[in-house]
Every structure is written in structure tokens, then in C-alpha cells.
Design goal:
DNA Binding (I), subunit A, 3 domains, disordered N terminus, nucleus, HMG_box_dom_sf, UBF1, HMG box domain-containing protein
Length: about 270
Amino acid sequence: MGTIIKIFRDIPKLNHLARISTSVITRTTVKNEVKRPPSPFALFFQEKWQNLKTDNPEMNQNDLMKLASNMWKNSGSYEQQRYRDIFDDKMSTYKQSVKTPPKRPINSYIRFYMDNLDSLSVIYPNVTDRSKKTAEMWKNLSDFEKAKYKREYERDLGEFIQNLTDEDKELIQNRRQSLNDQRERRAIKKYGKAAWNEKPKVGAPNSYIAYIREHSALVPKGENSFVYLSKSWKELSDSEKSVYQEKADQLFELEQQKLSEWEAKNVKV
């Protein structure tokens, strides 16, 4: 697992450019997002709910749900099919109205994993064992062999960024916001809102990010920060860049330590 984490931290600067390109648009809410239609049973329940409450005023909501569930089971295939047909019509409309964001190309490590999936699946049918073996193989792969996957990824990533439309960026941002909202709701339910607000911010810093953090305040006045830092980074030697990789590793370990302390403090027994 540590190897996989390091790989994701070492994603090249081009990956950083991709994140910037898809997040520069204004933050938008997803309140107007088209919702997936309710299931056939949910449609049945919605239609019967008011009558169930009127006919059974002494029942609480859980009992009414059980009653509706029994009614659904005993309603017969013809009645159930009617709601399935309604659902299919709504789902067809939903699929036509919903636009999905374009998918980012898979990174270097996943490409390597997919290349070896068929052969490893025979020897390691268990997913966990297969993942561990793949991580071990990747760790022992030479820089020359890794470069092949890196070039393919950067090529596809460059094309992905170049072909992004404003609509694509908005779809990506809305999708990202929707997922973040879902994660936050689950986390608040698990830890409580007060504890969640105190959670330390944890990123995945790489050497380039560490360099930017250290030099962002040194950009000459009037210069474009991103262009200036990008150019100065390219001019560094490999040995100079390695210093910032060490700083990124230290920062990552510090952030993980803070996160572990927070989780230990707030975990509910």
C-alpha cells in the first residue's frame, strides 16, 4: 500500500496542470442536478403512502413501511410490472438528460496493472494478493521501463486537457462537488460535525508542490506566479529537485501523523 501511495504522490507536474485546468472554473452547487428516478417499489410506495397513512393513523412510519413492503410483495407480477414500466420510462428520460463528465486517462501504475492483469489473475485469483504482487513488481521495475507507462499517460493526459470544453469542466466540477458533499455527509454522520470541522487537511504533496509552497512568496511583482514557478522548476537539476522530494515526503508523513491522531481521538467505539 505504501508503494501505491508514493506512486500517487509522485504523479508528474502534468497531472498538477490537469487538476488546475479542471478546477479554475467558479465553484457551483449541484442543487439543480437531475436526480435519478425512484425505483419501482419507491414509485409504488409514493402512490400508496397517503392512503396508507389515512387508513392506518395508529401506525408509525416504520410500520407503514413494512405494510407497504408486504403490499408490494403480494401485489402480483402484473401490478409490479406497471411500476417497472413507469420506472423504465423515467430512467430513459433521465439518461437522455444527464451528461456525464469525461474520464481522466488512467495513470502509469494502473496501466502497468492492466498490462499484467490477465497473467497475474491466474496465479493470484485473490484481488488483495494480486494488488500486493503488482505493487511489488512496480517497485522493482526500472526507471527505463516505468518511463514507457509515464509517456503514455502524459500523452493521453495532454490530449484530455486539450480537448476539455467549458461544459466538460463544469461537469467535472459539479461531479467533484457532489462526491465531496456525499463524503462530508457520511463523515459528519460518523464523527459528528464539530469533530469533522477540526479534521486536519491532508493532501498528496509531490516535489513540485513542495517547491511551489516554498517559493510562491518569492515570485517577483508583476510576474505570473504559475508561469514563473513552472519555468524555474524546469531549470533545476535532478539533484536539486530531489531535495524537494524529501521535503514532500516529510510533509506527507507529518500530515498522515496528524490525521492518525485526529482519527484516534474521534473514532467512536
